[in-house]
Backbone:
């Protein structure tokens, strides 16, 4: 969550994302979290995070 918030702030400050679309994106994510798709999305993101975590540099 913190990483996404940092990315959002960087995009807004960099000018590539205006405040209006950023608010819409945040609200969309907020309302999407209350749907039935939330568990599937969480499992998908957890699997991606697990794959990234298993990469050795």
Residues:
């Amino acid at each position: 969550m913190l990483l996404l918030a940092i990315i959002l702030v960087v995009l807004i400050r960099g000018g590539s994302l205006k405040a209006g679309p950023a608010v819409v994106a945040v609200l969309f994510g907020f309302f999407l979290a209350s749907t039935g798709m939330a568990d599937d999305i969480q499992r998908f993101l957890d699997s991606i995070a697990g794959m990234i975590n298993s990469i050795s540099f």
Q: What stands out?
A: The two ends are 24 Å apart (CA to CA). The chain has three helices and no strands. The helical segments are 2-14, 19-32, 38-54.
